[in-house]
Amino acid sequence: MKKYKKSVTIFGSARLSEDTKAAQDIIKLAEKIATAGYAVVTGGGHGIMGAGNKGASNAGGDSL
């Protein structure tokens, strides 16, 4: 974690379906976070955290 000087945590339910508006919004948000040079940190898994991972990955950013 020391090498990631800037990070944002996205943490939430694993039960949110990826096809919901909320999940799509989280993907877009995580893309913006990663594009701004921040690592996205989640608890892993699906749902909200999976959307965060996907957004960071889509933007070519770091997802932890």
Descriptive terms for the model:
mainly alpha; 64 residues; 2 helices; 2 strands; two-stranded parallel ribbon; globular; 42% helix
Note the topology.
Layout: E1 7-9, H1 21-35, E2 39-41, H2 47-58
Parallel strand pairs: 1-2
Describe the structure.
Helix 1 links the parallel strand 1 (7-9) and strand 2 (39-41). A two-stranded parallel ribbon has the order 1-2. The chain is mainly alpha-helical. The protein has 2 helices and 2 strands. The longest helix has 15 residues, at 21-35. The model has no long low-confidence stretch (mean pLDDT 94). It is 42% helix and 9% strand. Helix 1 (21-35) crosses helix 2 (47-58). It has helices at residues 21-35, 47-58; strands at 7-9, 39-41. The termini are close together.
Strand content: 5-15%
Q: Which descriptor suits the 3D outline?
A: globular
| Count of DSSP-assigned helices | 2
**Average residue pLDDT:** 94
**Helix residue percentage:** 40-55%
**H/E element sequence:** EHEH
Physical arrangement of strands within the biggest beta sheet: 1-2
As residue ranges, the low-confidence spans are none
N- to C-terminal separation? Answer: 9 Å
Radius of gyration: 11 Å
Instruction: Indicate the structural class.
Output: mainly alpha
Please describe the biggest sheet, giving its number of strands, its sense, and whether it closes into a barrel: 2 strands, parallel
Count the beta strands: 2
